[in-house]
User: What shape does this take?
Amino acid sequence: MQPSDQVIVIGAGPVGLCLALALAQHDVRVCLIEALGDDNFLDQIPRAGTNHPATLEMFDRIGLYAKIEPRGIIAPVFHYWDRAEQALVAAFDHAYLKDDTRFPYVLQCERIKIVEEALAMAKAQPNIDLRMETTFLGFSQDADGVTARVTDAAGEEATIAGRYIVSGEGARSIIRKDLDIEFEGFTYADRTLNIEVAYDFRRHGYAERNYISDPVEWSNLFHWKGPPDRWRVHFPTRPEETEEALQRPEGLQARLQNFLPKAGGYEICGSNLYTVHQRVAKRFRAGRAILAGDSAHVNSPIGAMGMNSGIHDAFNLADKLVRILRAEADERELDRYERQRRHVAIKHTQAQTMRNKRLLAEQDPAVRKRNNDELRRTAEDRKLARAFLLRSSLIESLREAEQIA
Ligand SMILES: Cc1cc2nc3c(=O)[nH]c(=O)nc-3n(C[C@H](O)[C@H](O)[C@H](O)COP(=O)(O)OP(=O)(O)OC[C@H]3O[C@@H](n4cnc5c(N)ncnc54)[C@H](O)[C@@H]3O)c2cc1C
Assistant: This one.
């Protein structure tokens, strides 16, 4: 294979790294471009961390699962709580999926650990030409290939040639903007406050992963492996509150105390504030340029679907690019990638995360009661619970995508 036959992947996030590893393991040469350097790669803010069963199967295909499992927490059960009533509404057990997946649980393992392990694998993979501290600037394409423009680690402008270019750049994708592809959707007015705290909430009956509804202040509560172990609590904020005011230590402490009073105060390990978008790119492909992960779709993190569905994009795309580069399929496969993954982004990821937010923030007492009753009924009925878990874990989305020609 000539160097110009390589696939250029922009971004060593979870999506870019999984794509690069999946391609390289099928003897496709990859040039993987990452703006961060080795010195600051691990300084990224905490983000995703719940990995669904189907994603674990994909990690296993590239040898990544064995590396991250010891760094995460196996969590078969997740909870819905009603904060106003201080009651556990429903517990869903992934054991109901034991005939659907080899991994009937989620793995609570943060994005940063995943990219750290995957980056180490990429460095050891001879088919990957990894360029750290290299910033992608733009690209051009013609009938035969693509040329990416970058600033390399020495600060020099350089060009890199390849057959295809994939944007794993995240939500601010230059490729998407250069192609003038509309990022359809909206941005929520309220930002989400994320507080990391060293305290074991299991002593109050919580599971490793909890969705807590409340008409005033819904929240999510997740457990991460340490040392020291940490829990992440998400809270909504009012649009008029400033970032500085929201992150004052006394304010963070007060929010946690209001959530669950604790003598002596909480040990807060960190906090950050993020804006939540619901957007899907109008197209996932233009010629030899393809979008995957957050560059193609962003959504609310309630339900843990952003990173997971992005990784599903990566594996879907890797299979197609391998067959195209081996001349076993033609480029129409890339249109199928767009049809399949755009369908999932709109009908599953976006629809479910919007529904999840509505469910947690519901104001109307009658609707809240109806929602809680339905969740309870669903969790208690084996058949309904399995159907619910197939949807929430994105297995249904993958099965449905397979049916799309
Ligand atoms: C607070 C929060 C919590 C979340 N929780 C979850 C969760 O529990 N589960 C879940 O599934 N999802 C979650 N998400 C979403 C998840 O983090 C993203 O969907 C996921 O990280 C997207 O992966 P990606 O590889 O597409 O992009 P990114 O993770 O954004 O990675 C992009 C990479 O590209 C690099 N890059 C960008 N521009 C350039 C350039 N010009 N040149 C070179 N390199 C470049 C960046 O440095 C970065 O390394 C959460 C998001 C947030 C904000």
In short: DSSP finds twelve helices and 22 strands in the chain. The chain has a mean pLDDT of 96.
